[in-house]
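User: New here, please read:
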Amino acid sequence: MSTDIDAPPETAPPARRPFPVLGLVAVLLAAAALVVFFTRSGTPGDASPEAGFARDMGVHHAQAVEMSFALRDKTSDGPLRSLAYDIITTQSTQRGIFMGWLQQWGLDQSSDRPAMAWMSGHGHGGAAMSAATPGTMPGMATQEEMNRLSQATGRDAEILFLQLMIRHHQGGVEMAEGLLKLSDRDEVRALAQHIVDGQNAEIRTMKELLAQRGAQPLPAP
């Protein structure tokens, strides 16, 4: 009587590995990150809005600091002295940041290009663009106005400072808003927005101080 021999069990087909979706996603994300890195790590050129903004706002800030030193030495008014001190410290610090960017980008701190040329010809509408004329910076005091401020005393000096600085800040806000229309560089946009917010707040304060002295602001730039 023959004995059936059990057939060897069938070998199960190897289990199919699930498609490595997560691995593929990781690779794609890494590739995208590299693209973003190399795109964003490109430094702004000499004629870029970022370089022009840094140079021009550095000059703009320097005049605000000069005006604030002049006022601080002429008044004993507490709120005005505090305002002047805040402008000196804030804008001196920001000016240092602008110059540091230019150095980091391998660019000169000055240029033969006209002031505000970075805001012209870019096709971005708005009040900031229409008011920007190459060769001039909005809100800057003239040399004659600076001379008047240096010679003024007492209440006259306080009023003239507030009038000039309100207009100066309005011009600085205009420049910063212009940069926000032209740049997608995060660190430059962040500082420009900080300038918009901070200087608008100071404009409101200065208008109140000016009204307390029975005077009106100058026409906006």
